[in-house]
Amino acid sequence: MTQLNITAKKASAPAGGTAGATATAPFLEVRDLTVKFPTDDGVVSAVNGMDFALERGQTLGIVGESGSGKSVTSQALMGLLKGTSAQVTGEAMFQGKDLVTLPESAMRQLRGRNIGMIFQDPLSALHPFYTVGHQIAEAYLVHNKASKKQARAAAVDMLGRVGIPSPEQRYDEYPHHFSGGMRQRAMIAMALICEPELLIADEPTTALDVTVQAQILDLMSELQEETNSALILITHDLGVVAEVCDNVLVMYGGQCVESGPVDDIFYDTQHPYTLGLLNSMPTLNSAASRLNPIPGQPPSLLDLPKGCIFSARCQYAELAGDGVCASQRPELRVEDGHGKRCHLSGPQIITIRNSR
Amino acid sequence: MMTFILRRTGSLVLLLAAVSFITFTLFQLGPSDPAAAACGQECTPERVAEARVALGMDQPFFVQYFDYIRGLFSSRMIGAPGAQTLCEWPCLGKSFQTNENVADIIGRSLPYTFSMAIGALILWTITGVGLGLLAALRKGSPVDKFIVGAASVGVSLPIPVTGLFLLLLFVNQLHLLPFTTNEINSPFGPQGPGAWVANYLLPWIALAVLFSASYIRVTRTNMIETFGEDFIRTARAKGLAPRTVTFKHGVRAGITPVVTMLGMDIGLLLGGAVLTEQIFSVPGLGFTAVHAAISGDLPVTMAITMLAAFFVIVANVAVDLAYAAIDPRVRLQ
After folding, report:
1. Residue A257: enclosing H or E segment and its boundaries?
2. Is the peptide bond before B203 cis (omega within 30 degrees of 0)?
3. Do A113 and B239 touch (CB under 8 A)?
4. Which is it for strands A230-235 and A198-202: parallel, antiparallel or unpaired?
């Protein structure tokens, strides 16, 4: 499996053997992460060998359509798949601990304290029967030896920091009293109350309208700067990625198909799938009246194709010749921190880019 | 919350008035002639007419209804003019059979019904919710399959079958328990709580087998659904202990349908478990109602019917209030 180092500005990456948290080891290093779900219909291969690394203070965007394995990846990192039927293999080194093999009890100590998570759709992610403040204070009390009064003070302070007006009063309100944007702010307050070093945000702005989206993204960036935490931002919104991410990882069929610094992904796109994604984005000045989707359906995770997972939908598959796209799964090739999983050569890709 | 309680209580009073009126009307329109029943075996048309006057049946319908309702608030005179007797508050009429005040008959039966209902209720709630939760936590495992299977068997066993089987086994064969006696109707009686439990244990088990089956299924289904909710994932993501996630976050949210069922079942059961009381010869409300109905003792039947309706309505309101206590969103409406 090719070793990918996304830490763009730092050139060095240890090739294997990062058992301890040495000074050179990345803050988070995921290698060959694989998640399979056995079902009655067969084994669902949700994530198929993910590799990436992340440093503190950086933001990694994971992009892909529904069912591409983005959320499952994040849940595997959080250890939320422990105790389910999911089979997680590979390695995810975080502060010298492998999140994949760490027992649930130890994982529980990390959750909330060292790794925080912000979920999509805060209305369903917050408990409807407890006040917002109670839920935030609860997150504080799990990992801090504090009285209820101290926890309340911490929660009120955090609500204020995420920009909720009159936090003292809002503390005692229920999630259904909050607006969508306020709920997401509360969710962020809950994830950040223990100041985790790693924050995973799973489509944090999907359920929000555009102006609120911008506010929430700004807030997350601000708080990230304050605490110098690492952020994994899972989204299908390329606009969001362009705005806040340092590095991008494009997922398709549970695999990383392209990865690299955000500018490379947008301006030096190397994979036909990423091209398709960019092409399907509506723009204000485009004359086309219809959206430009990628034709076809994502592959069934029950029965992945033998060759390139994207080959069935790729309009350039015949360019590679010999039917190699249909018969052989491409490896992730990394050049200058920019990785792609495609049989097409660089010049071929450039020709394709220029032709559209 | 206070306005919510007041509104619910207000609707309770209105409902009770409506139910009492409907019940009263039904019994007036019913095929049985109270006068014929009251005058006994050797009846002549004259005696029936006398009985009609004695029962106040010569009065217009609404006068009869309001007389009846008046009895709920104060003592009143009852019987033919000149031969009136005092019917003390709360007056629900007098038994055709024994001329006893109906309220006394009900007062005598209630402790038996309460004794049976309370124990059965506790037993089936614990087993039903407990096993349902266990099955949900171990979804798909042999434990789950066994519990669900047992629930299917339990729900298809009628009370006469379980009841008679329990009596045969524990009383007749093993001699572990005494046969139910009428002398015990309270845990605070002279025989003590132990004897009370021993006396009612078999009816409790018979009822619990029947009821807990549906509680297992409802609890299991709802808990499985709740454990799949986003807020459970959030609770885990905070690093909460599994027990806190399961009980504080899961059970609190998933238990509401069980509260509804419980309320309805309490209401129904307090109106008298007819079959169970028959089989175990417990002279509770159901038992009394059946005997009154067979012998055409209209005032007793009517009073028990109204009381049963009253219990169901009160239970309904109690469920509403419990819902509001559990789910803050309900208080908004």
Report:
1. strand A255-261
2. no
3. yes
4. parallel
What letter does residue A129 receive in the DSSP assignment? T
Distance CA A321, CA A313 (A): 16
- Residue B11 is predicted with a pLDDT of 86
Q: What is the ipTM of this complex?
A: 0.84
Residue A6: pLDDT band by 50, 70, 90 thresholds? very low
Interface check for B230 against chain A (CB to CB < 8 A): the answer is yes
Q: Residue A20 has what pLDDT?
A: 44
Residue B240 touches partner A, C-beta closer than 8 Å = yes
Contact B125, B208 (CB under 8 A): no
- Among A37, A7, A2, A48, which Cα is nearest to A230's? A7
Alpha helices in A162-246 (DSSP H): 167-170, 180-192, 210-227, 238-244
- Give the position of tokens 């969001």: A240
Among residues A183, A71, A200, A78, which one has the least CA distance to residue A128? A183
Residue in A353, A319, A351 with CA at minimum distance from that of residue A343: A319
**Token pair of A274, please?**
């990423």
The mean pLDDT of B54-74, rounded to a whole number, is 84
- CA B237 from chain centre, in angstroms, equals 44
Q: Do the Cβ atoms of A176 and B249 come within 8 Å?
A: no
pLDDT level of residue B38 (50, 70, 90 thresholds): low
Distance from A2 to chain B by nearest Cα, in Å? Answer: 31
| pLDDT for residue A335 is more than 80 | yes
Question: For residue range B8-30, what is the model confidence (pLDDT) as tens digits?
Answer: 888 888 988 888 888 888 887 77
The pLDDT of residue A146 is: 92
CB contact under 8 A, B240 and A142: yes
Instruction: Please give the Cα distance from B114 to B120 (Å, whole number).
Output: 10
- Beta-bridge partner residues of A37: A44
Count Cβ atoms below 10 Å from residue A132 Cβ, excluding itself.
Answer: 30
The pair of three-digit structure tokens given for residue A64, joined into one six-digit string: 């892909």
Span B270-295, average pLDDT: 89
What does the alpha-carbon distance between residue A320 and residue A324 come to, in Å, rounded to a whole number? 7
Kind of pairing, strands A247-252 and A59-63? parallel
Structure tokens at B139: 């979804």
Mutate one of A108, A131, A206 to test the B interface: name it (highest B CB count within 10 A). A108
Give the H or E element holding residue B22.
helix B2-29
d(C-alpha B288, C-alpha B307), whole Å: 13
Cβ pair A229, A54 in contact under 8 A? no
Chain B CB contacts of A121 under 8 Å are 230
Distance, CA of B163 to CA of A139 (rounded, Å)? 50
Mean pLDDT score, A99-123: 92
pTM of the model: 0.83
Q: How confident is the model at residue B207 (pLDDT cuts 50, 70, 90)?
A: very high
List the single residue in A112, A124, A128 with the smallest CB-CB distance to B237. Answer: A112
Taking residues B327-332, what's their average pLDDT? 80
Would you say residue A187 has pLDDT above 90? yes
Which residues in chain B are closer than 8 Å to A127, comparing Cβ atoms? 231, 234-235, 249, 253
Return d(Cα A268, Cα A353) in angstroms, integer.
Answer: 9
What span, in angstroms and rounded, lies between the C-alpha atoms of A272 and A317?
A: 9
Q: pLDDT by residue (tens digit) across A158-182?
A: 999 888 999 999 999 999 999 988 9
In tens, the pLDDT along A241-272 reads 998 899 999 999 999 999 999 999 999 999 99
Closest by Cα among A53, A72, A7, A37 to A302: A37
**Cα–Cα distance measured from residue A61 to residue A316, given in angstroms and rounded to the nearest whole number:** 26
